[in-house]
Amino acid sequence: MRIFRNILLLLLLASAVPTAVLGWLLATAGGERLAARGLLLAAGGAVVSAALAVLLAAWFARGILRPIQQVVHGALEIARGRFGHQIEFRTGDALGDLAYTFNHMSRELQRQDAENRRLIGALETGYLDTIRSLAGAIDAKDTYTRGHNQRVAELSVEIGRELGLEPRALKALEYGGILHDVGKIGVPEQVLKKDQPLTPAEMDIMRQHPAIGAEIVRGVDFLREAGAAIRSHHERWDGMGYPDGLAGEAIPLVARIVNIADTWDACTTTRPYQPALSNGEALAILQRLRGSQIDPRVHDALLAALSRREQATARPPPSRAAGT
C-alpha cells in the first residue's frame, strides 16, 4: 500500500501541475468569461488527471508488488525447508534479474540439501555399522546372550508402536535396543559367563555397563536419544535401579521400554544362571514387577505387543490361487 500511495502522489503531482498552469494562463489571458472557462477547464482536467493517476498508480503498483510478493512467498517456503521453490514471473528489468537470482539460489539450496542428506545418511550408516560391530562383539563375548540385542530392539519397537510413538522415537528404540548392553565390553568375561550368583563386588562391576555404554556412544549425535536407553535401561519405576536411581517419569520412556523388553527376553531365553521360562511364567514375573520395576503403562503396551505377535503367528498364510 505504501508503494501504491507514493506512485499515486507522484502521478497526481505530475498531472495536476500542468493542468493548474494551463488554468492559470487561461484565467489571466482575458476577461471574466474566458477566466471562468479556464477555471472550469482546469477543474475538469484535474478530475480527469486524478482518475488517470489512480488507474496508472494501481497498474504500476501491481506490476511492482506482484513480483515482490512472489519473492516474499518464495523466501517463506525456503525458510520452511522447501528448497527448490521457484517463482515464475519473467521481465527484462531488475525484477527479472531478481527472479532469476532467487530461482538459482533456491535450486542450489535444494541441491546442497540433498547432498547433505546423503552425506548424513552415509555417516549415520557408518556409525551404526561400527556400533553394530561392537554389539556383535558382546554377542561373541557372551554366547548365552547371542541374538539378545536384536530381539530386544525388535520388541522395543513393537512396544513403542503400541504406545503410538513417532518414527524418531521408534528409531531411538531400535538403536537403544541393539546397543543397550554395549557397555559390557568393559566387563570381564569371567563375570559375564559366571553360572553362579554374582558376588557384591562382581555385581558392582556388572552395574557399570550402562554408564560405560552411554560413554561409548556419547558425542554421536544421532544416537543421543538412544543413549538415554543405554544408560537408564536398568533404572526401576520405584527408584531402586541403577546407575542413577531415577524413578517414575524421570526415567526416559525409551529406557523404560527397553527395560521391559530386556526383562522379557532374559526370562524367555536360557542364561548361565537360569533356563528359559515359558511365556506364561515370564508373564507372571512381569506382572509381579508391574509398578515396582516396570512402568504400568509400558507393561500394558508389552501385553498388547505380545498379543499382536501371537495373532500374527496364529494367522494362516494367505492361500495361493490355483496355477500361480
Q: Overview of this structure, please?
A:
It contains twelve helices and no strands. The chain has two domains: 2-82; 143-314, Hypothetical protein af1432. Helix 4 crosses helix 10, helix 5 (167-179) packs across helix 10 and helix 9 (224-232) packs across helix 10. With 324 residues, it is an all-alpha fold.
* Overall radius of gyration: 38 Å
The parts where pLDDT drops under 50 for at least 5 residues are 320-324
Helix content: over 70%
CATH superfamily of the largest domain: Hypothetical protein af1432
Inertia-based shape: elongated
CATH class of the largest domain: Mainly Alpha
N/C terminus separation: 70 Å
Q: Name the average pLDDT.
A: 79
CATH architecture of the largest domain: Orthogonal Bundle
Count of discrete domains: 2
Query: How many runs of DSSP E, i.e. beta strands?
Result: 0
Q: For the report, how would you describe the main beta sheet?
A: none
Structural class of the helices, strands and pairings? mainly alpha
